[in-house]
Structures are given as structure tokens and as C-alpha cells.
Amino acid sequence: MKTVLAIRASGKINNGCTKPYYISCDEDIYAVKFKENPQGLRVLINEYICAEIAAIIELPLPSPALIRVSEDFVRDNKQELSIHLGVEITPGIHFGTKKVKKAYPITDPDMLKFAKNINIIPDIILFDQLVCNRDRDSNGGNLLFDPIKKEIVVIDHTHVFDLGSIWTSTDLDQRIGQQFTAFDSSGYVYRKLVPFVRGNNPFHASLDRMARLKASDLWNIINGIPIEWEVTIQEKNSLNKYIWDRLTRIKECLPVLKPEFPFWKGGI
Known about the structure:
About 30% of the residues lie in helices and about 20% in strands. It is of the alpha+beta class and about 270 residues long.
């Protein structure tokens, strides 16, 4: 993942429990989640891992990056950001995604009919099963429509790995082999996606893309987590085993998902 340099604070983001902020960097504007966000470092770890996996399976995230904050940036922007976050930020590596100009939440399923990448909807659903993202079914802010490119854009993977920002090695180890469960297909977001999962074998291409993620890729992602985010080797091993277990069993989620999609025809 590339690293960009924070230059100046450019405006607060009013929604989000992690209190992100728009930051002008050396080559664009990013929505940044700071190390000092109210939910802690696990937020950045979750976002980083999901962004790297999404890149391999070609899920449309808005250019994630590591955001390097200097002492000069802290000095010049400390007051503004402290008011927003409630604490002072520190120099180092934070996490951000490039701001998508004029993108807005998908409030009406008819909006999806105009998306050029409508075919990625099964990919999104399968990805959420892989990382156990229990937030997409209800959080309307984490699936956007880019009216310029006419594309669906996926953001916000704070609440993954079943427990979001509060997982521990023990929690992850205990969940290895856990049965897949369908998320709420009547939830705010998922009910808009249901009509677009149709025909025979709608997840066939998604499974092929997910198969691109090899064991070495996953370990390289996890081992590449910035040191200052304070992940122990035990936690890295637990993350690796937990995600790899779900990846190798991902087909087990299909019989669980099928009843939720009335336009899915034929077998699994």
C-alpha cells in the first residue's frame, strides 16, 4: 500500500464513530482515520487488511493509503483536529482512503441500475462473508455511488472479524471453524442488493476472484501492518489463521445465502 504525506486539515466528516477527517495530502485529499480515533488501533488494522484483500479480488475501494503525519503537520493542525477528535493526534502512520468527489450513499435500489460495475454486487456480499463484516447490512454510509464514473464504491471496514475493533487473539482463535451465517438481507443496504443477485451460479465469478488470494499473500498483508499499530506476533498469527480458515471454507456460505436471494436460480 502506498504512503502519502499529510499536508493540512481540509474539513471534518460529520458522520462516523471513528471521527475521520478530510486531509489534503501531497497528491490528493483523503478521508483519514487517525491512530487516536475513539475506537482505537484495531480500526486501522481492520481497514488495512480489508483494503489489501479487496485490491487482490478487485473490489472497488477508493484508493486506500497509509497517511504519514509529521511533527510539523501536528503543530499546524493540532487545535483543529483536537476539537474534532477530543484528543491530540501524534506523528506517525495513520490510515486513509481517497475522497470520492460527489459520491453519495445508495438510498434507492434504482440507482444501482446505472452502475457500470453492477456485476460486483456478489463480490461485495462474498467479501463481507469472508471478513465477517456485520455492518454493511445496516450502515447506509459504507456503500456509495460515484455519479461521475457511474460506479459502486465500497468503503468502511471498521466492524469486521465479527467483533469489529475489540477482537483479541483468543476471540479469533475461538471463531476458527465457526459456521457461516447470513447477514440481514432486509437491512438498509442489503435489501437494495438482493434484486441484483440472480440467475444460475451468481457467485461463481466471485469465488474465482477470491481464489486469487493465496496463503503467502495473506501472510504478507498481515505481516505488513505498520509496527506502530502495535500488533503482536500472536495477534498476527491469529488473524492469519482466522481469515485463512474462512477463505478455505468460503463455499460453505453459499447454502446459507441462497434462501436470502429469491432471484438465484438453480443449484449452488
